[in-house]
Design goal:
Elements (H helix, E strand, L loop, with lengths): L3 E8 L15 H17 L3 H7 L1 E2 L2 E8 L8 E10 L3 E9 L5 E13 L5 E2 L4 H10 L2
Antiparallel strand pairs: 1-4, 2-6, 3-6, 4-5, 5-6, 6-7
Length: 137
């Protein structure tokens, strides 16, 4: 079950390619980050809002599966889905090409940390819960 999801469309720029003329594998992490930021903005709990609230959510785990290489000027749809928000943020990602073919899958786990003490928090902050509640109305 997904609490909410967000999609972004990008066109692969020249500078994302490697010497084999395909998207360098590290750029897929960048693409998921762009989609994750958009998802968090939709919830109303972006990184600046987290910090104002006294929390940060560093990545604790990332799993990736490369299925097919993306190429120059290819249009990619990146979908980020929030699967869990307590005790950690778990987000799944699917990147498809312009034909809807899946070329990459990933998931991340982010742990809520008190920005001052550095201690892990196992309950979602009220700001995050409020944002999710507003989306379900």
């Amino acid at each position: 079950m997904s609490f909410t999801e967000e999609e972004i469309l990008i066109e692969v720029p020249f500078f994302d390619l490697d010497p084999m003329n395909v998207v360098w594998h590290g750029n897929y992490v960048k693409y998921t980050e762009i989609a994750r930021c958009k998802l968090l903005e939709k919830i109303g709990y972006s990184y600046p809002e987290m910090i104002k609230d006294g929390y940060v959510y560093p990545i604790a785990k990332m799993d990736m599966k490369f299925i097919k290489s993306a190429t120059l000027s290819q249009k990619l749809l990146i979908k980020a889905s929030l699967e869990e928000y307590e005790p950690s943020l778990r987000i799944k990602y699917i990147i498809t090409d312009e034909n809807g073919e899946v070329i990459f899958k990933a998931s991340t786990m982010q742990i809520c940390v008190d920005a001052i003490t550095g201690k892990s928090i196992y309950e979602a902050p009220e700001g995050l819960k409020e944002g999710l509640k507003c989306l379900s109305i």
